[in-house]
Amino acid sequence: MVALAKIHLLDQLGVGVVAATLPRNRPLAALACALETGGNSTAFGLAAPVPAAAAALRNGALMHSLEYDGTHTASITHAGSVLAPVVLAPVALAPVALALSEEIGAPGASLLRAFVLGFEMFVRTGLAAPGAFAKRGLQFTAVGGPVAGALAAGLVLGLDPAQMTNALGIAGSQASGLMEFVHEGATVKALHAGWPAHARLLAARLAAAGMTGPSSILEGAHGFYTVYASDQGAPARLRHHFATLGASWHLREAALKARATCHCIQPFLKCLETLLGRGLKPQNIAAIHCEVPPGEEALICEPWAEKLRPASAYQAKFSLPYALAALLVDGAVTVATFEGPARAEVCAWADRVIWSPMAAFPTAMLRLKVTTHANATFCAAVDDVRGTPGWPLPPGEVLGKFYNCVRPVLKHEAPARLAAAVAGLERATNLAALTSALRSVA
To answer: What letters, b where the CB count within 10 A reaches 16 and e where it falls short, cover 240-265?
Structure first.
């Protein structure tokens, strides 16, 4: 589990570092200086230390801002971007974990433990009511994040059981995160990981200082599952999931992303990439038909006119036709694909994409069919997404993604030093090597 946590942490750090350089993230860059002064914590893209709360908010938001961070698909959770600073391991450098641990000098092994346990709680909280939050217009990463993050921060702070209960109760009142961002491509979605990272840290500290929170925050009549998921059966399912803690580890199910776009779009990109690899020429394509699993159409297909003509390249991260068209136009889908304005040339190619609901989900494979101008058809199908445990990214590709992200940002040997610091994290007595590398910005 330690080795897997470090893989996810390395991946998440790379994503956060490159995100700090993008023009659309400048509002996030101002946060570290605007909220407080002083502090010992590291913020992505900055050489000077900042306060823990500011670092947690900035780092969590940056890690989530590219849609390049890890995902636990069954619980619909971007747990790493919320927990990384606290635990620095599986799925990202928990914004809370990293920031808080630096301030109090927690050793690497403690951070890894907090990250893994926070991740496991986060995922289990989502699995108790899978999909219920999204149906009510809420992103689970945002609403569930404060609770799991408070646990991770509480472990680092060494809260006793009563204080931990209060921290979770306090965190429940900090949960929020509306899905409305998707219709305009509003970049506030990045805060769906940043605010939870910030909230958890504050919840744990407030509990340590004596503030109380409701012990029934999860199962109460006006608690988490009733209000956010409208699911009164979820608390019982949550107890069942918690009973498996230590016997099963959901971190093993977490997926790394091969491309910086919505998880639901990535299988279609792989299908089209497969056909292009077999010799299909973009100029010969008349139509691309995608079969979309139920529930995903609201995110990547509807309203279709909006997906065909997104207001920005960032909004196009959630556009199935734009992403496929970008692959045809550019031959690749990268971080740069979704920066700046939406391109007219890509939008023109997007008009060739059509979709229909998948007929036999979840037993059927996800399919994509291309029809050429000569009326020939070519099909490709996948039953999983690259980066998942069933189809993992090769170690060299994970490391290559990390170096591609950090080399343009960090000085000289800092990328290699950062990779080495993560590799030896469980043996580290402090975070000096890791934070030194992160602060070596070009």
So the answer is: ebeeeeeeebbbebbbbbbbbbbbbb
What is the side-by-side strand order in the sheet with 377-382?
Answer: 353-357, 285-292, 366-372, 377-382
CATH number at residue 321: 3.30.1330.120
* pLDDT tens-digit readout, 191-240: 899 888 888 888 988 999 999 999 999 999 999 999 999 999 999 999 99
Q: In whole angstroms, what is the distance from residue 76 CA to residue 175 CA? A: 16
Task: List CB contacts of 341: < 8 A, sequence separation 6 or more.
Answer: 312, 313
Residue 70 Cα to chain centre, angstroms = 5
3-state secondary structure of 124: helix
- Quote the domain boundaries for residue 66: 2-258+391-438
Tokens 């920005």 belong to: 312
- Weakly modelled stretches of the chain, pLDDT under 70: 29, 31-37, 85-106, 360-365
State the Cα–Cα distance between residues 188 and 170, nearest whole angstrom.
23
Indicate the DSSP class of residue 388.
S
142, 12: one domain? yes
Q: Quick one: 304 and 422 in the same domain?
A: no
Nearest Cα residue to 396 out of 367, 419, 426, 364: 419
Query: Hunting for tokens 């709360």 — which residue is that?
Result: 53
Interstrand relation of 285-292 and 353-357 (parallel, antiparallel or unpaired): parallel
Count of domains in the chain? 2
pTM of the predicted protein model: 0.89
Nearest to 267 by CA among 141, 368, 165: 368
pLDDT in tens, 121-157: 999 999 999 989 999 999 999 999 998 888 888 887 8
